[in-house]
Amino acid sequence: MPGKVVHFEIPADNVERAKSFYSKAFGWQINQYPGMEYHMVGTTPVDQKTQMPTEPGAINGGMTKRHDPVKNTVITIDVTDIESSLKSIEKLGGKVVQKKQPVADMGFTAYFKDTEGNVVGLWQSARRM
Fold first, then answer.
1. Mode of pairing for the β-strands spanning 5-12 and 60-65
2. The whole model's pTM is what?
3. How far apart are CA 27 and CA 69, in angstroms?
4. pLDDT bracket for residue 128 (50, 70, 90)
5. Which of 77, 94, 82, 79 is nearest to 8 (CA)?
């Protein structure tokens, strides 16, 4: 179902320090994604086939070096069509801050600012469940 929060991102000035903090504070599993300067953050168990959380309402996330547009913690919302969603967001007073980009072979991401200035991510999966 599109429209649900499916991911979060935590930016860090010092990624190793942040990884250590969150791992020790909450027991999160944080591993670098192969070939990318991006770390996957596991907060809850996942189905090995789909990589989706097994607990209803639970999400996992990512950690990256702080950069534009990810300067503060960001939630990411699942959509069926990023381009269509960005058009709607702009009509409603939001602003695109990063257009649609591929993420390996998994899907696509984009970022927008809402009417209150918050940066929010969008996710379009390459494979629908």
1. parallel
2. 0.87
3. 27
4. low
5. 77
